[in-house]
C-alpha cells in the first residue's frame, strides 16, 4: 500500500515538473525574442546651431517681429488694464484701468524655441507647463525691456541665473530669466527698448538647453501667453 502511494506521488511530481518546465522554457524564449528585436522609439529632436546641443523642436505659430506702438495696419493685442474676452477673470478681481501701453517689443534677437503652455522639458524629460517663451540667443546678446516700466526685482538663484522683473503698471509685469549680466538696479525706471541685461548660460531649470532668454508676461500675478501681444502670422 505504501509502495503504491509513493509510486503515485513520484509519478505525479514527474508529470507536473515536466509540464511546468515546458511553460517556463517557452516563456524564456518569448522574452529573449522580444528583447532581441525590440528597438527604442525614435525621438523628434534637432541639433541647435547654438552650442550643438539637442533641443526639442516645437511648433511656434507666431512671427515675432518688433513693432512700434504707433505703427498702423495689423496689430497685436495691446496691453491694458482690461482682460481680453479669451482670458477668464478670477472671481472678485477688478483690474485697475491704465493707459494703453501698445504692442510689446521683442526682448532679444534670436529664434523662438519653446512656446508658452504645456511643452516638453528637455531638462526634466517630461511634459510640463512652460509659463513663458524661450528665445535662443548668443551669450552676451543684449536683452531689452519690452515696454516702459520700473525695475521691481533683480535676483539671482541657481535655477534661473540672473532674473529681472519689470512693473509696467495696471497689473502687468514682465520677467527676464537666465541672464548672465544685469545692467539695471531695483527702483530704476526703464524705457521700451532699453538694454537691461545680457543673455548668459542657463540656470539649472533649463540647463540642458543652449544659451537663451526665458521671457514671461504676467497679469495680476498670473502668467499670460506673451505671443498674443506680438503680431501673428
Automatic annotation (TrEMBL):
Residues 128-226 form the M23ase beta-sheet core domain. Coiled coil: none annotated. The chain crosses the membrane at residues 21-38. It comes from the Bacteria. SUPFAM superfamilies: Duplicated hybrid motif. Residues 67-99 are annotated as: Disordered. Keywords: Membrane, Signal, Transmembrane, Transmembrane helix. One of its GO terms (molecular function) is metalloendopeptidase activity. CDD domains: M23_peptidase. Residues 74-99 have a biased composition (Basic and acidic residues). This is Peptidase M23B. It comes from Calderihabitans maritimus.
